[in-house]
Amino acid sequence: EAEVAQSPRYKITEKSQAVAFWCDPISGHATLYWYRQILGQGPELLVQFQDESVVDDSQLPKDRFSAERLKGVDSTLKIQPAELGDSAMYLCASSLSTGDGYTFGSGTRLTVV
Amino acid sequence: DAKTTQPNSMESNEEEPVHLPCNHSTISGTDYIHWYRQLPSQGPEYVIHGLTSNVNNRMASLAIAEDRKSSTLILHRATLRDAAVYYCILRGLSGYSTLTFGKGTMLLVSP
Question: Closest Cα partner for A103 from A35, A21, A8, A22?
Fold first, then answer.
């Protein structure tokens, strides 16, 4: 069964450092999502891509977060500088199109120390 | 987005049926009811979705009230592997509608 690949699986970084997460969606999936999940809460959407274009980044803290999907395939989410409050699970998901069900990756667990 | 209300947690015994409730009194006519679940240390996975009629698949059944203000996810025989957080989500038909997760229901399954 096709999967959404994410790396790294775990990341520990010091505050004020830069950190990046990578996501490779299921082949052919045009829509890609990045979510953040704080322990004990449900995932919250950070950014949504349709192909290479951002269609919703209203919840992305743009002063420190950036996301790109240059060729409309894989995507990178960056945080610079990281803050203690950024410690969370970062989940990537993809769907065939905007109305279809999502397939999530296993996430990247970020710890900022 | 219309909101859903779910119990924080539920308990079940293995091999017994489980009924997970969800209230969505402000649902609109074009909102689909989606259920996802999240096993420990994994991303959420799709379970089932429906609009008006009851739905069945290999994982579960979805029973939707006639007025659509509530729904119930039914696991016919719970296993230990069904222990997870279950999210009930309303999703509209607008072009770029997304999944908005609440806190969900944590299902505990005892042997």
Answer: A35
Burial of A14 (0-12, 13-18, 19+ CB in 10 A): exposed
pLDDT class for B2, splitting at 50, 70, 90? low
Dist. CA A64–CA A56, nearest whole Å: 17
Residue of A nearest to B43 (CA): A106
Residue-wise pLDDT for A40-51, tens only, equals: 999 999 999 999
Interface test with B, best of A102, A103, A108 (most B CBs within 10 A): A102
Q: Which of B13, B37, B3 is nearest to B108 (CA)?
A: B13
Do residues A19 and A13 lie in contact, with contact meaning Cβ atoms separated by under 8 Å?
A: yes
User: How much is the pLDDT for B10?
Assistant: 98
Cβ neighbours of A102 in B, within 8 Å: 36, 44, 46, 99
- For chain A, the C-alpha Rg in angstroms (whole number) is 13
**CB distance B54 to B61 below 8 Å:** yes
B35: nearest CA partner in chain A: A101
Q: Compute the C-alpha angle B34/A22/A101, nearest 5°.
A: 15
